[in-house]
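User: Fold this; tokens only.

Assistant: Input:
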Amino acid sequence: MKKPLVFVTRKCPEEKLKALKEVAEVEMWKKEDVSCPRKLLLEKAKEADALLTMLSDQVDEELLDIGENLRVIANLAVGFDNINVEYATRKNVIITNTPDVLTDTTADLTFSLILSAARRVIEAADYVKEGKWTSWSPLLLAGADVHHKKIGIVGMGKIGQAVAKRAKGFDMNILYHNRSRDTDAENQLQATYTSFDELLKESDFVVCMTPLTNETKNMFHAESFNKMKPSAIFINTSRGGTVVEEDLVKALKEGVIAGAGLDVFEKEPIDSKHPLLMLPNAVALPHIGSATLETRHAMIDCCVQNLISVLSGKPPITPLNKITAS
């Protein structure tokens, strides 16, 4: 009996795919630093039974219509704004993601951005490398304290709560805004639920942890930044589409807010001449929120387990949609 075909859209360690190769024929785009070309992705989707995709791959109506044999798509991310899940459900294609395994790793990176932006770590490192450090002075590259400040977390999901746990270690006062209150999080983390406007007004650090949806798209705009303290620092490790980047650039240039730490952008990869990269008070990273060897391997394992389960006639491990058997 012919094995089902799985196409992997980015180079993954071969040893991580061994179990998958026992139940399927596996083909892989093997260029590590270049996304799988759209044309090739569509060609493979047309013949494949399953895909292992990245957040840079658009799983839209065009792809799902072409993929007549597709049974399952495993997305190597917890976010899934690159996938039309509703249409996939109508096409009887199971969609899975990689929740939980990247929670702490992404929270670590988020807090490192808070510290980097507040203490001007990147500026200071470059200052030394560029030979500018010729003497000591009391206010040389003086930043802002993190401890005992107010942190406002927009999106108190699992990663947001993990960030809050880290904030407790810095004796920070925790505010949060969510679609709905989470009394368990409030009790466990001593977090205070506020309106979005109140959070913007009161927080020293505003941290965007919300998924990208129709409701959250462009939720941080000029009016939002104008409500923040002039000393506030904005952090985003969620999705770039939650921010109007032109408005953020203007807010940083004009001193409306003090700084920003960003791991995500509206269009990725970001252009090297993007205005945000020209600003000394903006720390920009290349979407590495979950990028540790341990976590990325765990994410691949999760995708592989989902693919094996579905291709073997079993339920997926971490489904995003529910397919009713016909």
